[in-house]
Amino acid sequence: ALTLSLCSHDENFAFLRRADAGDEAVVLENPKTVEYQVCRSTLMPGLLKAIRENRGHTLPLKMFEVGDVVFKNPARVLGTQNQRRACAMFTNTSAQFEVISGLLDTLMTSLNTPHRKENGGYYLEAADIPTYLPGRSANIVYVTQSGSKGILGSIGVLHPEVLRSFELEYPVSSFEINIEPFL
């Protein structure tokens, strides 16, 4: 999918059950409509809206996007910074988490990053992420060649409140990662 870079504040935060500390999203000063208030800081709202608009199609629905998100960064000249991300979603009558997990493994393998806790690998670490169901989410941790660790993104089954916010009736499993370290 190729979704819009602007979205509403609610779609970027409240609909995804994320808190807004005020230091992440770039807010437009004079938006023409409430649908385009902020630059997206996650790819999820656009893909969830795409699933909503295509929910009449035969299940399962499989969507992905590789694109930029924007964050505030006062150290930069314009006060913002882009980050390239990849996000994928799978929806069906059941969540089938193994499908999205397998896609993540395939993507990481194509990036020469095996599933391991050693240098140059990645692994999943259980985490309580509000966007996802409790007990059904994890951080995706990347271990660099030098051995340092960092969180690339997250994976899980979306929370029912997120599904209701985007008017979806079937479970959705998803992951989103920062792909900048691989570029």
From TrEMBL:
Alphabetical UniProt keywords: Ligase
Enzyme Commission no: 6.1.1.20
Domain of life: Eukaryota
Keyword Ligase: yes
EC main group: ligase
Keyword Ligase appears in the UniProt entry: yes
Protein name from the UniProt record: Phenylalanine--tRNA ligase subunit beta
Originating species: Coemansia aciculifera
Gene transcribed to yield this protein: FRS1
